[in-house]
Structure formats: structure tokens, C-alpha cells
Please model this.
Amino acid sequence: MVTTAMASETPGTSAVPFSSASAAGDTGAALVAKLGTARTAGSWIGADGKPVVAVTDERAAAAVRQAGAEPKMVSHSMNELKAATATLRAAPRVAGTAWAVDYRTNRVMVEADSTVSAAHWSDLSRVAAGIGSYVRMQRSSGTFTPRLNGAQPILSTGGRCSAGFNVTNGTTDFILTAGHCGPANTIWFDEGQGSNTQLGTTINTQFPGNDFSLIQYANGKAGDNADVVAIGNGQGVHITGAADPTVGQKVFRSGSTSGLHDGTVTALNATVNYPEGTVTGLIQTNVCAEPGDSGGPLFSEGIALGVTSGGSGDCTAGGVTFFQPVTRAMAALNVQLIVSKQAATGTGASAAPSTSATHSAIAPNGASPGSAASVGTSQDTSLVARLTDTRNVGPGLLVIGGSLIALVGTRFIRAEQDRKAYQRYYSATWG
Model:
């Protein structure tokens, strides 16, 4: 989750629109856009931090070299690769399968988890063979599932989830999180305050198809440290903007189950066939995640990239994790990311993000989560805290306070039992 306190927005935060994935200049994405998808097949960041562009002819390769990037000659254009994924999408849907374009190998990779039957595997293999040898099939031992819970947990009657990033429409503040966390009108509570503080209500959700939702804060404001992503041990990083990632980029994910982990972006525009339905346009990574990490933030160098959707594996054996791009979600919801005023104005220690910070300027092994921040706790203004403060109440109110504590305690125990039951269920289906 991004915030620590849930009271009121401080003067130190503001909002900025997300930044485009295309840098001002000849980045890999800009070159692909300039040359066209008939002559290119994607771009990625090389080990030296420079953009690599897949091209299909020598003239395109020369243009890439002239722009200071590295060309790689490939056999299949992006148009061919997209046509392959369209054919896969048109085939009968099989839950437990996923596919994405691997720019670096110039292939479409199709993966099936342990729930896919031999018959369905055979059917899908025939579809892949009909497309061409550049479609590769592979099986995994895990199970593709949406991942409930996440970093800085929030609680509803349906289970736990995680806030991803704080966003605003200029008047009201919201939490951007995963769509599978709950339907519209789901009421959320701040687990950090004993589940007795109503946090907000889901007002917009898209899942399947996409995987994002918007939770409106009960008091309309995100609170202190709204621009900070918690990464554990009382630490966090400042979020200064949002962008689309690049294949090969080093990224970081925070979640309440497994904490902070890093990896790289392996594909974009991935499609996953969850048991609940198909989600498209996802970011595919090799960052590990576990049940309890869903909805949590994906970021790099202080730039918001996505919220955790689902995947397979765990943080012991590794696995694959998919993320909903934040730029796509914010555009659909017509909201902006909340960042520090320094980032919004480009002054102070936290300067406005540059596109180079998330793309070709930083080698993958040199990237970091972002600038450090201390995750503090705001003053507890809950009803229970005020009733039990002897400086503010008389002996008579203490009796009432004790009764309320017992009531809230009973509610919390029931909520905690529900939370553990949901976690056991999702752990059992994780694979």
C-alpha cells in the first residue's frame, strides 16, 4: 500500500498526470513507433542499459544505429507476432494458460499451468503448430491465480487485499488496487487499526478483462505520506510519477506476505486465462509473489508501474507474476497519481521523474526502488483510543469505552478468522 496514515491529505502532497512510456528522444519505444510494427518487433533494455530494437530489414537497422541504439535482426515483425496472439485468443478459452510476446527471442511464449488437462494441452498445441514454429509451448508446475492480500493490508468481509497507489480526481482521493479484490460497493477497513476504522468503498472495478479497481476514501482524503510506498521494516520509497515499463527493466514489488522483491520485466501485453476469466494487456515479470501479495505496487526508481494481478510459483522456488499497468488503469478511471509537491513542481530533493529514469538511462543491475522515506504512523484518532484516554474522559465513559473495546475485539477476532480462512484457501490453490 502507498499510505501509512488514512486521516487527511497533507500540504506536502499533490497530484500529477502519469507520464508517457515514450521518452523525449530516440528511446527504443520511440524508434519502434517511428519505424512501424511491420519493420520492428519490440524493444528492450540491454545489460548495459542501452535500448535494443528488433528490426526486420537493414534500413531499419541503420536507423536504429544512427539513433544510438542497438539493432537486432529478427525473422518476424510485430504484426506477425500480434496476429499469432490474436489466433490464440480466438481459440476456445482454457483456464490456466497464458501467453505473451518475448521480444528478445522473437517468439510468442504459451504457458500452461498444472491444472490444464492433457486434452486441452493437445488442443492448444495444435493451434500453436498451425501458427508457426515461432510459437513455443511450455508447462509450469504452479497454478495461475489472482493473488489476494498485499502490501499494507486492507480488510473487507470478502477477505484481505492491498492498496497499490493513491490517486485523485482533483477533488476526492482513492486507492488504486486490483480489480479481483472485490466487486463494487465492497466496504474496506484499515487492518492496521484493528479493523474498526472504515477506510473506504469500492466504487469502480474491472475484472476480468482488466484487473483494477478504485476504492474511495471514507473521508475523501488519502492521508499523510500519500506519496510513499511501504517496503517493510518501517521503510518506504517516494513515488514521483507513473509510466509504462520496458522489457528488461529491473522492477520492485512490495507485498504483505513476501515483502520487497525484485526482478525484471520479461514481456508486455500478456494475456492470462484465470479460472475467473481472461485478463489482457498485463506486464509479465520474473518477480516472485505469493498468496497475500495481490494488489501490491510494482515500481522502479520511484516510478509507479503496476499493481499485482496474479501468477504462479512462490518466493522459494520462483515463478512468474503479472501486473495491471497503472497508466492504463488511471486513463480508464480518469484519475491522477498523488505525489509529493516537490515531484509535481520539479523542485526540492524529490525532483520530477524523467523518462530516462525508467528506461534506457539505467542498466538493469543498477536500478533501485527509489528515494528512501520513513514510514511513520499518524496520531490515532479512533473512537476506541479516545474513549480509553483518561486525560479526556471521566470514569463513566471508561465503562462505555470498555464495552466498545469488547465489541470491537469480538469483531476483529471474527475478521481475523475470516482472513486466515481466505489465506488458507488461496495458499491451497496456489500450486
Summary: The mean pLDDT is 77. The first strand starts at residue 13 and ends at 16. Helices lie at 28-35, 58-66, 78-90, 118-131, 326-333, 341-345, 383-387, 395-428. The chain has eight helices and 26 strands.
